[in-house]
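Following up on my earlier thread - several people asked me to post the actual chain instead of describing it. Fair enough. Here it is, all 325 residues.
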Amino acid sequence: MDFELSDEHQMLREVSRSMLTATCPPSLVRSVADAGADLDEKLWRKGADLGWMSLVVGEEAGGAGQGLVELCIVAEEIGRSAAPGPFIESALVAAAAEQGGADAAVVEGLADGSLNGTIADANTPGIVHAAASANWVLAIGDDVRLIETPPTSRRTTIDQSRGWHSADLAGGHALDLDPAWWRAASAVTTAADALGVGEQLLGMTVAYTSVREQFGRSIGSFQAVKHKAAEMLITLKGVRAATYRAAMCLDERTDDAQLWASVAKAHASEGVAGVAGTALQLHGGIGFTWEHDLHLYLRRAKVDEAIWGNTGSHQARVAELVAPS
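Reply from S.P.:
Thanks for posting it. Predicted structure:
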């Protein structure tokens, strides 16, 4: 299995990062949150223009015919910018609709961004990302069901970068899909989002400690601070390796795909939460202020830690798969 990203992968990363850097500053994230919205329409359209929502739809249905690895690359960049909007969820719903035999108009609308989709964990109902703006919800439980515009109510969470809602997941149309695969795909793309958040937190921390001075020198020159930054980087390297291995295994439908999906989500949940805590510590008092952007990423990391299975649940799943009773 080749773990190196291809030239095409690098291009996808660069194009996605460039667009988000130019159009999704923290001020946009704050404005969407202040408006109580799920997404910014201009940003949503730019994502659609880049083909994000059609990325994993088959070429015969007008998509790019790519896999979970490519979707994780986009998810990582979305996390890095704390971008609002169910881009990744909508892409997965489009792929599920296509593979599950849904109406072609539904697949086309989800793929071109004229329709919005999101994903709900039907086994642990609670909060669903961007459910209020979703035309279709993919409910993953003992089966996989496609539900059209279910009733929703907005929920208050610590995450300021995304809108979360409760949703009525009754009814819908059952799709002939393996719920375990789609649950694992949701966990792995969440790990990729958390990875991007962690990378942004590391970058912000290095930049801050390079200019913050104590005793006539930048605090980043102190050995203890260097060690903390190095530990953040090492953690993120591990999360990256686990996440992309899991995505590759899921794409190839390997026998150990479920194992690696749980490894990735467990490592991302615990690791990126730790990175967020270190970033807050190294920012000192300014990191606790509402005006500083650090909390946008810290809060997103904490919610990514909890959804689609936390560290403990995925560690238990790994133990079950490695040494079944």
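The chain has two domains: 7-177, 180-322. That should answer part of your original question.
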